[in-house]
Specification:
This protein is an all-alpha fold. It has helices spanning 2-25, 33-39, 46-72, 78-106, 113-138, 142-156, 158-173, 176-186, 189-205. The longest helix has 29 residues, at 78-106.
Length: 212
């Protein structure tokens, strides 16, 4: 069961990154559905917004891909622990760059203040959980570091769950903007609730670590 969950996390992360790279790397960003929707507004200007979008895509994709290796990979040897630290630095830097960039993007989020507030709250929670995870490992508190990194990656995984919810909700409501308002919160709040339940369940059963 654990291996299946691990495989699904890896698969979802890889598929979303591939989808994003193909959509924005091989085609003009203006052809993307979300951008086309934004262009319907006369007040929206692609530049410089699109440059912030590309920065978000690169850093967000890095964090999404690195996360599973940090969480699930075994660290039995000094070399693997060294790689864990290096990848962890890239993960953390990527999140803080992406988080700051995303606040700018969130101010222009489709569907008004409800979506904007949802995404800004996500950005702040994302950076906060990552910061606490770093602070814990600096104090050599490994169990707490693991738990906060799980919270951090649950928020990183919002890149996946956003796309899982948005399409079906758009079809169900028949209104993209309404679906987007719901998705701005659904893409991350349930993730955080679920991972908190997992963390508390593990604390009851006994300590477990990454890669076990």
């Amino acid at each position: 069961m654990r291996k299946t969950k691990t495989f699904l996390v890896f698969l979802c992360a890889i598929l979303i990154v591939l989808y994003t790279v193909i959509q924005y790397g091989f085609f003009d960003a203006k052809l993307a559905g979300l951008v086309q929707f934004k262009l319907q507004s006369p007040d929206f200007h692609v530049t410089p917004w699109v440059y912030f979008l590309y920065a978000h895509i690169v850093t967000g994709a890095l964090a999404l891909l690195i996360g599973p290796f940090q969480i699930f990979r075994k660290q039995r040897h000094a070399k693997s622990r060294d790689w864990h630290r290096r990848l962890g630095m890239v993960y953390v830097i990527s999140i803080f760059i992406s988080g700051i960039v995303n606040i700018y993007l969130s101010l222009y989020a489709t569907a008004g203040w409800i979506a904007q507030t949802g995404f800004i709250a996500l950005d702040l929670a994302w950076m906060f959980t990552t910061y606490i995870a770093v602070a814990k490992i600096m104090r050599q508190d490994v169990p707490a570091h693991r738990n906060w990194m799980l919270r951090s990656y649950a928020l990183t995984f919002a890149a996946v769950t956003l796309r899982v919810y948005l399409g079906p909700l758009s079809l169900a409501f028949g209104d993209f903007e309404l679906a987007y308002r719901f998705t701005a919160w659904l893409c991350w709040v349930p993730n955080l609730v679920i991972i908190e339940m997992v963390i508390r369940s593990r604390s009851v059963k006994g300590p477990t670590g990454f890669g076990r």
